Amino acid sequence: MGFLIRMRWTLESEGATPLSLTSAPNCPVRSGILSVEFHRNLFLACDHSQYYAAEVADLRFSNLWSSDLNSGLSYIGNKAERGQKRYLAMAVRLEFLPGNVYVLTLVGDGEHRFTPQSIPEIMAALDKVEADPKACALVTTGEGKFYSNGLSLSLEDRGSKENMQLIDQFHALLKRILTYPIPTVAAVNGHAVAGGCMVALAHDYRFMRADRGFMFLSEIDIKLPFSPGMNAIIRCKLPVMTYHKAMLSAFRYTGQTAVEAGMVHSSPSDLQSTYQEALKLAKGLASRNFDRVVYQTIKKQMFKAEIKELEILATLEPIVASSKL
């Protein structure tokens, strides 16, 4: 059984075979939007004139937005290339649950790295939640072994323009989460490393499973200094002793040691209980229906200095240019 997808931008079909309309699935076309349908590993697509079929591996597309019409789930993702192998770089799933809570999930078994493509997709999901007046709380989590393994930076050319631009994008994401107008809860499903740890820290509340995964800041090991904005996020969310230890030793915190260090609020026993406890808190907060303007204003007052640091453009180049792996 497939699900209907609407594509907002461009479908690039490589070697796709046209099908007759009589043999194609019921795939309604709307003005300006391509409609496609998945059937296992077969990708069926229609534009305004004809249908095409090709193996998923033979297709390349970008800026994908999709909606499972039966469950109300939304997906945002992009395709990327690594050598000759095409893979889903990151996808974001949004689900609106009873209790006026949205759940944002980083989909797939990958490392959920923050890239120039994936950050805008997360921001777009945050836009969608914020645009819904019924949304009263947000939970973020991931699939697989990683909550996130951080930024996809080039360590060969650390001071590159591309690295600096990615760091600026990441600062914007941290600022967005830090000042989000509804309560945010991170349900850390696995490893939260470097930038992944910072994103979790930017949330109002954090839960981390006890049975698997580490939360840590690896920058000292990869010989990459923190930007002022990154440092600000970490400093404002951690107790002083934990701040020093995490920054200067790359200590790997388990769920339990993270609770003891004041890095997370709770460490339920396993993945499912972590998600359920995070969702329970989110629903409780959502039931209070905080005024968004007041909630965000308080956050901006709390983190006024950190916001200024996050708005500083990346300036790592003179520091990292002489750093050697």
UniProtKB/TrEMBL annotation:
CDD domains: crotonase-like
Enzyme Commission number(s) from the entry: 5.3.3.8
Family indicated by similarity: Belongs to the enoyl-CoA hydratase/isomerase family.
A single GO molecular function term of this UniProt record: delta(3)-delta(2)-enoyl-CoA isomerase activity
One Pfam family linked to the record: ECH_1
Catalytic activity as recorded in UniProt: a (3Z)-enoyl-CoA = a 4-saturated (2E)-enoyl-CoA; a (3E)-enoyl-CoA = a 4-saturated (2E)-enoyl-CoA
Keyword rRNA-binding included in the entry's annotation: no
EC top class named in words: isomerase
Pathway as given in its UniProt record: Lipid metabolism; fatty acid beta-oxidation
Keywords: Lipid metabolism
Keyword match Glycoprotein: no
Swiss-Prot/TrEMBL GO biological process terms: fatty acid beta-oxidation
Protein source organism: Physcomitrium patens (Spreading-leaved earth moss)
Domain of life: Eukaryota
Protein name: Delta(3)-Delta(2)-enoyl-CoA isomerase
